[in-house]
Amino acid sequence: QCNARARTFSHVEASFGGAQARGDVARMVALADELCARVPRDPEAWRRAAATRVAARQMPAARERIERAVELAPQSTPVLCTASEIAMASEDAPRALELARRAVASDAGSAFAHEVLGRASYLNRDFQSALTHSRRAVELAPADADKRQVLIEILLGLQRGDEALLELETFLIVIPDHPWAKAQLAALRKVR
Prior knowledge:
Elements: H1 2-22, H2 25-38, H3 43-55, H4 59-72, H5 77-89, H6 93-106, H7 111-123, H8 127-140, H9 145-157, H10 161-174, H11 179-191
Helix pairs in contact: 1-2, 2-3, 3-4, 3-5, 4-5, 5-6, 5-7, 6-7, 7-8, 7-9, 8-9, 9-10, 10-11
């Protein structure tokens, strides 16, 4: 059964990669749905199907598919993080927060789970939690530009410019020549 699953994934993965390279979202959606049909009890298949529906801007279908993944793997950090992101994109902030909290509870060492919880907390106006989890994401993955960018955006959103300035300077030490960080630093220095 494991070998059959692996063959199914590699067949679809190869086709999916080609469709992705061509920007063929419709083909990606079809392949992800094919994968779900072939391995209907595999949460990763449903997670991927949900992500492709997001790319196709089909949010109701994305939510249906990610909820199926959550049913199949209620403690999977990747599934819970994706579900939280889809809930945020669907403007369901309370559901996003619940799923992100579950993701961190499932794997407290996941930088991505802390990043997602930071964003979900911010949307729910729990600013202390947003900062705590965004900072934790940066601690866990200091060279990940996305984690640093989320923290800085939260600081700027909270109008904590001095802290954002320090974080931007650190960002450029860790990841020199990052275009977003350079532009933000220049803009922040102009208004200071």
